Amino acid sequence: MVIYFVFLTISAATYALFSLGLNLQWGVTGLINFGHVAFMAIGAYSTVLLSMQGVPIAIAVLVGICLSALLGLLIGMSTLRLREDYLGIVTIGVSELVRLAAKNEAWLTKGSFGVQGYPVPFNFQPDYPVRLGLIIWLTAICGLALWKLWLWMRGKTPRYIGGAIASAFVLTVCVCGALSLYTYDPRAGLMLLTLTTLTIVYIGMEKLVNSPWGRILKAIREDEEVPRALGKNVFWYKLQAFMLGGAIAGLSGAFYAWQFTVFPDNFEPLITFNAWIIVMLGGSGNNLGTIIGAIIFWGYNTITRDELFKMFFRTLGLDDTQQGAFRVMIIGLVLMLIMVLRPQGILGKKEELTLGR
């Protein structure tokens, strides 16, 4: 059970990291990207293929981030002057191009058989003092998360639901993670690395979004003619946001590869739309909301796979294949209700909403 929760934590943190890139592109800047998974695929393949050739993991991840940013540059240079709907069409086409290239260029990507047997970080057996240090490290991250949630919830009654869910998740992560680190399972080390990276990216994103640079991006989202009239290079700011969002998704690709497996069909458009669900559920333009949205999304995804729910689904006459489709249908229904009842998401601000503008 503890190891399974470690798996859930890594998955939720990886998707939160992936969705933070989309939140920067769409939630903050207003750029529609239906091919966000292409950046994750580039990051995942670059990391594992280079590390299999003896390149240090840290350098392999950095190369994956740079290649993902380069892909964002190539897409942005050719599309960011187009209307938003054209940008969405181009990005989903690029994501499918990347996936099909990975599937067919076996000389580079091993084709449909996928890449296996690559090194992963924290795959060692530390002694007791190192384990204790890792537990303290995890406790500090969880404490920082709880403090941030407490500051955010204070005096804001409507925020208690999302904050309570996230706080319960953080406390469970701290307990299960500490147990796994004490007995030491390599997946616990990967969990700690994922949470550390997510914390650093979140803090950096918060500083950027609330800086003058971030305020220009928000102005572009609302009406790009206003910053253009003030002498700002709108295209350049859009390009920066698109590249940075792609780089963050490329970073998440490394964790996706270490957590799951690297097969071309693991990078289908559904992964992008899962990120859209997370961003819209948590609140467009809100980084903390994106993280909470990832927790809720993966919590739902995990609970509905429990044997008790499977028995309930079977009483409805649904086989295993139909159960998967039914879970997706429920997510779609919940998303529709959110768009009607609270279109800004759990933590989003209605005055910043750009849907329907």
TrEMBL record:
GO cellular component assignments: plasma membrane
Transmembrane segments: 31-50, 57-77, 134-153, 160-182, 188-205, 241-261, 273-303, 324-341
Membrane topology, from the record: Multi-pass membrane protein
Record keywords, A-Z: Cell membrane, Membrane, Transmembrane, Transmembrane helix
Coiled-coil ranges (or none): none
Record-linked InterPro entries: ABC_transp_permease, LivM-like
GO molecular function: branched-chain amino acid transmembrane transporter activity
Subcellular location(s) per record: Cell membrane
Presence of the UniProt keyword Membrane in the record: yes
PANTHER family named in the record: HIGH-AFFINITY BRANCHED-CHAIN AMINO ACID TRANSPORT PROTEIN BRAE, HIGH-AFFINITY BRANCHED-CHAIN AMINO ACID TRANSPORT SYSTEM PERMEASE
Protein name: ABC-type branched-chain amino acid transport system, permease component
